[in-house]
């Protein structure tokens, strides 16, 4: 038993007063004449015995009355030693997509929210921390609406970052107990890695569904194209390969096709949809299953690509370039240096310097400005080039030509991992018809090699948006024009001059989209979805605008790019699928972590630690009983 005001126990000194009265027996006697001596002796003995018992009983009642009142005013209570210490509580509520897992008629996260709201009093104060939001310390009643409206997110904080955010929500008061409650399925989150500095107690409540089944649409890509059809392949995975569901393909709200993937023993499968080539499709692949909801939709788009403008300058042969840069995808032009329309240069996406022997200084300045403004430059050197002119142009790119080497050399190396050749080859080609050159140039400084000679020196190198061949490609010097490498190499350079939007982008992963248009000052592009709109980061160039994506958008779906109020192309975004797979077993919790089997145990532990049972009422009742006992004694005993 503990006392709220122990200093009031000095009041027990008042017990001396009834004791002194009892010992001194301050009672006056009166003489009474009586004639019967024998009867008097008998009455005197009985009266003395009765009086002595009554005095002791009255003394006991009065002592008990005083003691009970003194203790009652000291306010006794029962509680743990630190029950009266102030507590600050931060609750981490995991709202990642894996907490969408069904549990009864609700989800894991909503079940945790309901139990907290039902079992904790409205005046309970805490701070709330989620994967994407945080709320400073306030009453549970004030947090009710945010908790009930809490959505899910793809963000998954790591344990150290989570601990840092939690510490920022605690006050700096050194005299409080700081409790950190973690409610999560701990899918990829290990509380053992949390730095507990500044945290007094760490409590975890692991949540896992009793039965888990999920079918996820993982990814989609274009398997092949023809003049009439585009074959879209969709990959799915399921926890139970025996429970399959059909996939539905939509263009906007219009159902185009259905297909049921065949699942293997590992739960993975594929479905193929054939789409008309050349059609603009704002697509979505959907499935209905009983598991997680966020991975039941995969959005994609097929837009009509804009024509890429390519301008070839110089006396080099250009017939093979015209055959590669066809009219359906490119707007190809060529001219000599003397007939060049330099005023039209800034509107081009790719400029090819085609075996120009010497480059005039004004042209060098124009090409340098062209590169700075986001243009792409491909340099095919002349066999008899003017070295200072070329190095003057190349100095801003970090490349330089050292000199010419006469002698046959074969092109044998392909950098399959280079971004230029991404998705160009189905596999690494080891043996092919190696092209050769009769003379080439060595470099004093080079970028990243794309194609290499057999001696390891570069045949095609890239630095930023500038590509440099190290040999002339005319028939007298090289047979590269007859090589199977020429088409994928030049086509990839042309396509990368204005990168076409991916089939879709993954939310949270850095990505870029280049638009073939430019806005004036103080004007921006917006992306609008059905119920969400955002403004991405933007970089303006002379002939295009680059949109940069990161954490935005926050929702998946098909978005339309708007220039003011004029709609443009469509861009698709999907959530990452990391949480679609079954969660690994729960981590081993270290000794400083208190694990609770359910919410009732977590809340009950808190209530027991903070419960204070007041006892002063019982002592008041005891004092009243002593008063009643004294009254009875006064009435009954003589």
UniProtKB/TrEMBL annotation:
* Listed transmembrane segments: 6-24, 56-77, 615-633
Look up keyword Membrane and say if it applies: yes
By its UniProt entry, which InterPro entries does this protein fall under? Aerotolerance_reg_N, Class_I_gatase-like, Double_TM_dom
Q: Which UniProt keywords apply?
A: Membrane, Transmembrane, Transmembrane helix
Highest taxon, organism lineage: Bacteria
Sequence ranges assigned to domain Aerotolerance regulator N-terminal in this UniProt record: 1-76
Say if the entry is tagged with keyword Isomerase. no
Q: What is this protein called?
A: Aerotolerance regulator N-terminal domain-containing protein
Name the source organism: Robiginitalea biformata (strain ATCC BAA-864 / DSM 15991 / KCTC 12146 / HTCC2501)
- From which lineage does this chain's organism come? Bacteria, Pseudomonadati, Bacteroidota, Flavobacteriia, Flavobacteriales
